[in-house]
Each structure stands twice: as structure tokens, then as C-alpha cells.
Amino acid sequence: MKKIILSIDGMTCSACSNGLEKYLNKQNGVYNASVNLVMANMTVEYDEKILDIHKLEEYVKKAGFKSPGEFKEIKLEKKNKNEKIKFIIFTILAIVLMYISMGHMIGLPIISYLEPHKNVNNYVICLFILTILFLIYGYDIIKNGYKNLIHKTPNMDTLVGIGVITSFLYSIYNMYLIFNGETNLVMNLYFESSAIVIYFIKLGRYIDGVSKDKTKEAISKLVTITPSKAVKKINNECIEVTLDEIKKNDIIICKAGEKIAVDGEIILGSAHFDDSFLTGESKPISKTIGSKVLAGSINFDGYIEYKAERIGKESTVSEIVRLVVEATNTKAPISKVADKVSGIFVPLVILVAIMTFILYFALTKNFGESLITFVTILVVACPCSLGLATPLAIVVSEGLCASNGILIKKSEVLENVGKVNTIVFDKTGTLTYGKLKIAKIFNYSNMNNTELLQIVGSIEKNSNHPIGNAFVDYMKEYKHENLEVNDFENIAGFGIRAKLDNKEILLGNAKLVSKYKIKNDYLETERELSKNGNSIIYVIIDKKIIVLIGVNDVVRDNVSEVITELKRNNIETVMLTGDNEETALKIAKDVGISKVISNVVPSEKADTIKNLKKQNKFVMMCGDGINDSPALSSSDIGVSVKSGTDIAMDSSDVILTQNDLRSILKLIYISKKTFRIIKENLFWAFFYNCLMIPIAIGILKPVGISINPMMASLAMVFSSITVILNTLRLKKIKL
User: Fold this and answer.
1) 132 and 93 in contact (C-beta within 8 Å)?
2) Most buried in the list 155, 419, 560, 636, measured by CB within 10 Å?
3) Which helix (H) or strand (E) covers residue 683, if one does?
């Protein structure tokens, strides 16, 4: 199975995206297709043995749309000068057309040459010519509408196209009769209705395009983080190149004040770097030879040379953009409901309009009035606001999350966060920084501490557990050489087994001692270390305990504040750790967590999550993503605290790149605010259609309330603007 994101042109409403989505999901070889109206793209999972990108593009074309190819970047649809000039010209023409056709009705001065009762032919020809110009201006709307009707995926353009062309053709027929002497039909022309409907649709799209750009700004800013050029070192010569010219293992130079071009590793020099765009760390970070640098980081004060490791789509920034774009292409449950409604709404409106036309004509025998009612229903019912209600809010909120270091992989997460009533925290690396330091050593061997720590450090350098970092850091700090280690084996939840100088060495917790049935005479020592909040490492050589080492961790800033706020929101907090009970209880007490589950291996963590879910709890699991993968996968929402370089390998639903648990509070707040906005949008969209369609049908005519196609198109624009302005309130959220 292969996944690809394609750009899509020609979508104007949710009926477009729904129709394309349904059509593609019916095709052989397509596992899943999800279309994003706001981002104008589509994520497709397909069988590469059956399909390729060209075949997918053909399917898109058959469905009535166009794919310019693979989605490579977020394009802001900035209106160019020619478009603005064209829009201004047609605004003036719309005013002129309205003045000529309706000015005499409201007592405005009449141009004698175009007086409808004295110079009928001039009046008719002028309206006809102006309307032809508007039909040319709106040709894309009409073409798209009829194309989608042919492909059985009617959309907003279909409603407008049918209405506009119907009223135009009827006006052509009346124009023919007028030219043949029936001048009394001059008031039965509806050229201006066709033209002004197109104008208002274009006005709405102009506003809509600007608004969609605003929703994408937070995401697009990520793309501009990296510089466009870099200096590459070739045979001791410095050559300026574009990012496309950089290959893996190339040597890149970065001076003070410049940005890192691609992810890499420093091979010469040192400097302080600003990684705040990714980690949220406001203080400059010191980096030297061997340190990783991320594309977009700013070099404050040094000269470095670094080896390119991740380029192009592999870079951390590109990975973040990909995750955010893919997230916007997934649909929240509430969005799927709106999509289903939109999918049946357009055909239903066409049916209602036809039935109303037949009924009117049967009762009144007035073809013109029946036709205008038909057109008004089609135009007023356009589901533009309904189509924007959910995807616009999702894109805004996910962009807001991304700019705050919260990467969401699926839109449904945003909806589900509001249901969370229990949050389970891993201890090491989540509630604490995972930066452990060696605090106490109880040595029961003939070796000195330095020799012992060199052995432990040489073995732990092969581990990816935070506890192992304490020994690796020790080795670096005291510049000890690594000894040769053989037969390394990670025993998840217990520790490590390895061979060194033909001796079997075990490193781990008390459960490792029990697993290998080794006599333990040091339980009192273990208790003493635990009371002081230490995590304990037993060092066992040839099945004999020779050392107990206590390592200490530091609790993250603001953890107590986060736990207090969660409790205030009636969310239960639980600590889940593989560490011993005494150490876990001490840290839990410090941060305010009352429920602690300790001494559990990774598989038991997953079982614990499942047990909580059986108690009808909606569980969020927050871990560091190393040993917590089973638990993260078992939870309703998995949240991991990650460094930027680990993002591509992460399997959780949410990634916190700022290493700050306050991001969880931000996520909860954004989620609740987003879905309040979505519900408001859907209410106004449904309320608008429920109110306007009966008025368009003429139910309120007896009390003097009615509308025509021009007013209908203007009302549709105001409906969309209401949804847009309501959604943009999300951008003003203060976190």
C-alpha cells in the first residue's frame, strides 16, 4: 500500500469534495481517499500494483476536477493585480447593470437612450451585452457545474449554473418576442439576475480565497523557517548552493546569524542555537562536535561545519509540515456528519426547485414567476457555508496547534480530546526530564567505582532508555573509552544483558534479579535509595550482585501546575511507571498525583490502559515514546513528548515538540474552543438554509416577505462570511 497527497483544482464546496471522495473510494485499487476542501488537496492510500499517480489523476479528471500533481507545498492563493483589476471592473459593470435594469423602479434619473419603454431595443441589447460579459466572467462556474452534473456529483456550481443558464435562456426567448413586437414583455427579462448572481458568487469566492489563506498561514510559516540557500564546502572551497543541490553527507558551513539549512551533525566548531520554533526552549542551546542541528535553527555566535543527514522531505521541518497537512486531510466524526448532509443536500434542492416550479406554473400559469422562484431556490440553497463550517475550523486549529508545538496526526483527535476524563503519565522522560544523574553508588566488588562505571557506561551506550543516558553522559564528561561489548540484548521492562571480557553482565531493576533467580541480600540498600527518590540499577556479573547504583531525575517545570489544572477540569491523573513504588510515590506526591501504578513492564502498561478503558474511562496516555509504545497505542489518545529528530519514528496520535506538559492544557483548550466554533458554524449554516429555502419557495409571500435571485446570491455570500468570521475567532485564542 502506498500513500500520496495530490493537489486538486476546481473544488468550490463540500458537495465537490464529497463527490470526488465517493467516486475515488469506489475505484479498484483505492483503499481510502480523503479530500480536503480548504487545503485543496487529497490523501489517497492505494495499491501501487494496480494504480499509479497518472491513473489517479485520470480518475480525478473523470470526476470533474483536475489534479496538477503531487502536493508539494502550501500555496497561498494571493490575489494578483490582474484578478483585482478584473474584479473591480466587474464591480463597476454590476453597478451599471443594476442602475440600467432597476434604476427606474426606485426613481433614479433615467438615461433616455436606454429608457425601457421608449427605447426598448436599446435597453434589451444593452442588458444582453452586459450579461454576456458576466457569463464569460463566470464561465468556470457554469462549466464546472454542468461537468459535475454529468458525472453525477452535483455541487454548488451545479445549482448556480442551472439557475443562471435557465433564466438567461428564458430572457433570450423573451428578447426574441420583444424584437417581434411584443414590447409588453420588457419587464419579463431576467438578464440582470443571471449576471448579478455570478457577480455575488465571484465576490464570495474572492472573500473565501483570502480567508482560506489566513487559515493556512500558521502552517505555511513552517515552510519558510529554512533558508533558501546555503554554503557548501567542496575541496576546501566555499560555494553557495540552493537547498536542492545539497546531498547527504555534504559539508555545510553556518556562520553566526545564519540559519541551518538541513538537519545534520556538527563536525567542526561550536555555537549557541535558537531551536525555539521546534522545542519551545527560549534560551539558546550550546552545541558542539557530535551535536545534532535542525533545519531552521539560528546560529547565534559561532562558526560551525556540519554534515548533512536529512535533506528535502526527510528534514524535521518537512516532516512536521507533512504531519500537519495529513492531519488536515483526515476527518473528524462531526465533519463526516456534515459531509453526508451536503452529499444529499444538492440533489434534494434540485428536486425541490423542480417541484416548486411545476406547482407554481400549474397554479399561476405564469412561466416567468415560476422560473424566478426556481432560480431563487437553487441559488439561495447553495451549501457553501455548510461546506466551510468544519474543514475551515479544523485547518485553523491544527495550524494553531502546530505553531504551539503540538502536532496532531488525525483530525478526530481534536474532537476526542474533549472527551478525555483520565490522563495517564509515564514518569521518566515525561513527568521528569529524563536527564538522570548518578547520585549514589553502593559497591560490593573488588573494582573501584571508575572501573565499574566504565563497564556500565560501555553497555548502556547501546540502550535507548533515559536511565542509560546518565551513564553515557558520565562517560562523555570524564572522557572514558568505551569497552568492547558483545551479545547485547535489551530485556524490555527489566534491563539489559551483555557480555564483556567473556563475562555475562546484567543491568536492571529488582525484577531483573527475580527473573534470573539471583540471590538478593541488598533489599535494605534498595529501600534506602528509593526513599531518596532514586531509580535503582543492579549490576550483576556472573549471576552475582556487585553494585547498586542510584540515579536521580528532575521533575519538569510546571508539572504541579498542569496536574492542578487537570484536576480543576475533573480529569483524573495517574502515574504509570516501571520504577519501584517508593521512588514513584515520592515523585507523585511532589507533583500532586494521587494514583500510582509502579513496577510495570511495557506490556503491563498496555494492560493497565485497557483496564481503565473497561471502567468506561476515556484515556489519554502521555509518554516519552520509547518504552511506552504499547500503552500509547492502547489508549484512546496517545501523546508523546519528543525531540524533533524523533518525530518521523513516532507512533502516537499527538506529538509535543516543546517538551512542556502545559501543551496538554493548550491542546484541551484548543479542542474545546474548536468544536464550540464548529457547532456554531453548523448551526448558522443549517439555520440559514432552513430559513431561506422556505422564503425562496414563497411560503411568506402572503405576509409580504419574498426574495429574488439577486438577493438570494447576496444572502448566500453573507452566510459564508458569517461562518468565516466566526471561524477566524480561533486565531485570536490566547494560550
Assistant:
1) no
2) 155
3) helix 662-697
Own/partner pairs for 135-144, CB < 8 Å, 24+ apart?
A: 135/164, 135/168, 135/194, 135/195, 135/198, 137/86, 137/90, 137/198, 137/199, 137/202, 138/164, 138/198, 138/201, 138/202, 141/12, 141/198, 141/201, 141/202, 144/10, 144/12, 144/64
DSSP code, position 146:
H
| Amino acid (one-letter) located at 417 | V
Calpha distance 723→707 (Å, rounded): 22
Query: Tell me, which fold does domain 406-431+555-663 have in CATH?
Result: Rossmann fold (3.40.50)
C-alpha cell at 415: 474532537
Where residue 222 falls among pLDDT bands split at 50, 70, 90? low
Residue 239: which residues within 8 A CB-CB, separation 6 or more?
A: 231, 232, 233
Percent of the chain with pLDDT strictly greater than 70: 86
Measured distance CA(575)–CA(596) in Å, rounded: 5
Chain position carrying cell 475505484: 27
Question: What's the rounded Cα separation, in Å, for the pair 50 and 242?
Answer: 37
* Edge-to-edge strand ranges of the sheet holding 503-508: 437-443, 544-552, 535-541, 503-508, 495-500, 486-491
- pTM tops 0.70: no
**Where are the domains positioned within the chain?**
2-70, 81-219+324-393+679-732, 229-314, 406-431+555-663, 437-552
In the chain, % of residues over pLDDT 90? 23
For 663-721, write each residue's pLDDT tens digit: 999 999 999 999 899 888 888 888 887 888 899 898 888 888 888 777 777 777 777 77
Please give the Cα distance from 618 to 129 (Å, whole number). 64
Separation between Cα atoms, residue 530 and residue 525, nearest integer Å: 9
What cell was used for 725? 468570521
Q: How far apart, in whole angstroms, are the C-alpha atoms of residue 723 and residue 683?
A: 10
Q: Report which of 358, 428, 385, 401 is spatially closest to residue 598, judged by C-alpha positions.
A: 428
What is the C-alpha separation between 324 and 526, in angstroms, rounded? 46
pLDDT in tens, 87-114: 889 999 988 988 888 777 667 787 878 8
pLDDT at 627 over 70: no
* The three three-digit cell numbers of residue 720, written as one number: 459564508
Q: Which of 320-334, 345-359, 387-401, 650-664 has the lowest mean pLDDT?
A: 320-334
Please tell me the predicted confidence (pLDDT) of residue 231.
Answer: 92
Residue 73's pLDDT band, with cuts at 50, 70 and 90, is low
At the topology level of CATH, where does 229-314 sit? 2.70.150
45 near 3, Cβ under 8 Å? yes
- How far apart CA 204 and CA 195 sit, in angstroms, is 14
Which residues are part of the catalytic machinery?
A: 426
- Which helix H or strand E contains 158, and what residues bound it? helix 156-179
The pLDDT score that the predictor gives to residue 656 is: 85
CATH homologous superfamily, domain 437-552: Calcium-transporting ATPase, cytoplasmic domain N (3.40.1110.10)
* Cβ pair 60, 8 in contact under 8 A: yes
Please report the sign of the dihedral spanned by the C-alpha atoms of residue 113, residue 115, residue 118, residue 124: positive
* CATH architecture for residues 2-70: 2-Layer Sandwich (3.30)
Q: What are phi and psi of 6, to 5 degrees?
A: -110, 145
Helices (H), 29-155: 53-62, 81-102, 120-137, 139-150
Cα–Cα dist 471/485, whole Å? 15
- When computed from its CA atoms, the radius of gyration of the chain, rounded to whole angstroms, is 33
Q: What is the C-alpha separation between 662 and 669, in angstroms, rounded?
A: 11
